[in-house]
């Protein structure tokens, strides 16, 4: 189907499209009938706005002139004829002048009325064009949201009468913004136009295609009565997905994109419930499309009730997170960090917990992704840090606190200033704080991150690289960042009690830390056997379940009081680190 035909057909009928097998029989917006070439003088014509199309003054002059011409013209014309033919008498000058005046008035009135006729035709054409533009997308020739609403209502009404099912497809291009930014808006417009053409080619007759703006398209697809709606819509979606995978070439540029597609089917609705059926159809297709995006680029998903339940639960969870920030429900829990040489408690790592009134304690791996997705993780993080600093003020001055920061935290341009301000307000020495950088942070603008980390390091804040040994870590990055410590991922010691290769790998990692003059913290030490195996590898600190469970602020103060590690008490000697022969109950912690 040619591009011009695709636009011209939609422009002509508002929402009528064309298909390679013939015109699509979708609902149409009928244009107003054209005005006649000659307009009755006495009949009252109305234009598209409902006003009379004739000019009363011009019409009055024209009618009066015609009546005067009829009443006096015959007398004057008769006398003129007799005068020129037989030489009898002379025409009355007054009557002659009146006839000439009437003729002039008739000509003037008719010209004025003809001009008005042309003006009405132009206005009618402009209003028809405006009506078409109000319901179509000028770039692609597809419907817009208003046009789709009209098409949806009309199509549902027809399906109530004729039976059958109606499917909704929501199609969203993946990485379109990136292509638009790289190649320019001209290429981006060409991509959208070609995408609309390919989608339209893959739709059956009677379908309606709309673009809601950006790179999102919606299609209404009538399904054959009696056929399996799921199988039919799956076939259509697969056909469209394959068509959109083909590269698009324009003006020397070649762009390859994929699309995420979600579908939903509305069974034959009741006539009194068309509005809710239309809203549900588009909402369900939207839910399915976002599920397809979650599964990866270029995926297709058909709506299921489980998707909607998951979305509703997610929305409720997001709302509860917002309310939890206001009610200060996000509290820190702490994990001990132990000096593996002396067995002393030297620091703690903060873990976030959400004490939800309805859900109970919720771990960070549940609420952090949601909070980052809705853009409020910064508020959650600040609440946790302030509470942790308040707890930290009661600890012995040599105890440190390790906190994780996410890529979202570091995108805040005021991150360093906010952190240092909270340290000053809590009267905490910057050297007691250790900021743990996760690997995801290194995927951002490295030069900008390095500048941020150097700023924090210059203020005395310590920096460590978390989860080293499992994800990609460049030695050049380790040297470029002002790190004070690296932390080994717990996955590196899985199977250490039965696999000699694990010890070999740990020895190599220990050599890297030694050569870079970076002390190493070993995470995930969960059993006394692991603790024994790890001795001698040069790790300065350790943490894990063998040293005790996570503790909230009150529980931690009680434990620290036992070992004299509160700020207002003298430190007490700490026992040695338990060995492999120690009972597991005695390995709750070393201090």
Automatic annotation (TrEMBL):
Compositional bias annotation for Basic and acidic residues: 1-19
CDD domains (alphabetical): EAL, GGDEF
SMART domains: EAL (SM00052), GGDEF (SM00267)
Domain annotation GGDEF: ranges: 164-305
A Pfam entry, by short name: GGDEF
Domain EAL: 314-564
Signal peptide: none
Region Disordered, annotated ranges: 1-29, 571-591
UniProt-recorded name of the protein: Diguanylate cyclase/phosphodiesterase
Native organism: Novosphingobium nitrogenifigens DSM 19370
Lineage: Bacteria, Pseudomonadati, Pseudomonadota, Alphaproteobacteria, Sphingomonadales
């Amino acid at each position: 189907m040619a591009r011009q035909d695709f636009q011209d057909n939609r422009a002509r009928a508002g929402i009528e499209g064309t298909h390679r097998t013939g015109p699509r029989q979708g609902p149409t917006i009928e244009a107003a009938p054209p005005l006649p070439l000659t307009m009755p003088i006495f009949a009252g014509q109305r234009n598209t706005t409902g006003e009379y199309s004739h000019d009363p003054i011009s019409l009055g002059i024209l009618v009066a002139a015609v009546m005067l011409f009829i009443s006096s013209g015959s007398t004057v014309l008769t006398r003129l004829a007799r005068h020129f033919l037989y030489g009898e008498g002379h025409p009355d000058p007054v009557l002659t002048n009146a006839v000439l005046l009437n003729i002039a008035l008739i000509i003037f009135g008719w010209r004025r009325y003809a001009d008005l006729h042309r003006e009405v035709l132009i206005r009618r054409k402009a209003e028809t064009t405006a009506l078409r533009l109000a319901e179509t997308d000028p770039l692609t020739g597809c419907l817009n949201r208003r046009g789709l609403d009209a098409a949806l209502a009309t199509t549902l009404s027809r399906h109530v009468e004729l039976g059958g099912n109606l499917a909704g497809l929501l199609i969203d291009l993946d990485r379109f913004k990136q292509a638009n930014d790289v190649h320019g808006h001209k290429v981006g417009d060409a991509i959208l136009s070609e995408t609309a053409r390919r989608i339209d080619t893959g739709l059956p007759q009677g379908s309606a295609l709309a673009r809601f703006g950006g790179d999102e398209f919606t299609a209404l697809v009538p399904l054959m009565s009696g056929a399996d709606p799921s199988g039919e819509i799956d076939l259509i979606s697969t056909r469209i997905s394959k068509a959109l995978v083909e590269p698009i070439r324009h003006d020397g540029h070649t762009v390859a994109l994929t699309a995420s597609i979600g579908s939903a089917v509305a069974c034959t609705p009741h006539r009194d419930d068309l509005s809710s059926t239309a809203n549900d159809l588009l909402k369900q297709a939207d839910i399915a499309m976002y599920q397809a995006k979650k599964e990866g680029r270029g995926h297709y998903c058909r709506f299921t009730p489980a998707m909607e339940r998951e979305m509703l639960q997610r929305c409720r969870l997001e709302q509860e997170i917002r309310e939890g920030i206001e009610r200060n429900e996000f509290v820190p829990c702490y994990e001990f960090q132990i000096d593996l040489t002396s067995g002393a408690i030297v620091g703690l790592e903060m873990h976030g917990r959400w004490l939800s009134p309805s859900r109970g304690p919720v771990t960070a791996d549940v609420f952090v992704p949601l909070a980052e997705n809705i853009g409020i993780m910064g508020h959650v993080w600040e609440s946790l840090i302030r509470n942790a600093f308040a707890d930290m003020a009661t600890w012995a001055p040599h105890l440190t606190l390790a906190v994780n920061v996410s890529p979202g935290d570091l995108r805040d341009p005021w991150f360093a200033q906010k952190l240092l301000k909270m340290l000053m307000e809590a009267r905490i020495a910057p050297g007691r704080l250790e900021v743990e950088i996760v690997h995801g942070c290194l995927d951002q603008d490295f030069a900008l991150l390095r500048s941020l980390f150097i700023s924090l390091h210059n203020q005395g804040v310590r920096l460590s690289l978390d989860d080293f040994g499992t994800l990609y870590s460049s030695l050049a990055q380790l040297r470029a960042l002002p790190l004070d410590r690296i932390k080994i991922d717990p996955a590196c010691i899985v199977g250490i009690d039965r696999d000699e290769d694990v010890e070999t790998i740990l020895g190599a990692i220990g050599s890297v830390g030694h050569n870079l003059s970076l002390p190493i913290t070993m995470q995930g030490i969960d059993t006394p056997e692991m603790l024994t195996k790890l001795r001698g590898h040069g790790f300065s600190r350790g943490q894990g379940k063998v040293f005790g469970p996570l503790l909230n602020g009150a529980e931690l103060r009680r434990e620290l009081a036992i070992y004299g590690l509160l700020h207002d008490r003298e430190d007490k000697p700490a026992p040695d680190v338990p060995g492999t022969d120690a009972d597991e109950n005695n390995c709750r912690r070393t201090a």
